[in-house]
From TrEMBL:
The keyword DNA-binding appears for this protein: yes
SMART domains referenced in this protein's UniProt entry, alphabetically: HTH_MERR
Domain named HTH merR-type: residues: 1-68
Native organism: Streptomyces niveus
InterPro entries: DNA-bd_dom_put_sf, MerR-type_HTH_dom, MerR_fam
Family annotation (Pfam families): MerR_1
Lineage top rank: taxon: Bacteria
Keywords attached to this entry: DNA-binding
Name of the molecule in the record: MerR family transcriptional regulator
Amino acid sequence: MRIGELARRTGVTTRALRYYEEQNLLTAERSASGQRHYAETAVDRIHLIRQLYAAGLSSKTIAELTPCVIDGKATPELLQRLAAERDHLDRHIADLAQTRDKLDSVIDGASSNMQTGAPCPRDASA
């Protein structure tokens, strides 16, 4: 498939797809006229790349990890790196959950203040 179709099917801009190629995250065959042509598997690869980016991984890390994730080829060092990335994600998830819980507490407290007519501390100084 050509770059425009891949962009449409994945919701990624053509600019982003070119960037993924530059970062060695994605490969394309070139036609005689220089047009990019991608395999059908590129759709799944793009979804994986976007998930890994969303998880906070850098393009360099993604490039290092995708052979293991996609092809199942892993050295002991790569498995350790995957475990370290997973541990990083676990810590990030725990931090996000703690932040969410704090926000819930603030929201609940603000709701109670609104119901009783008591001002929030910030409103009291205004």
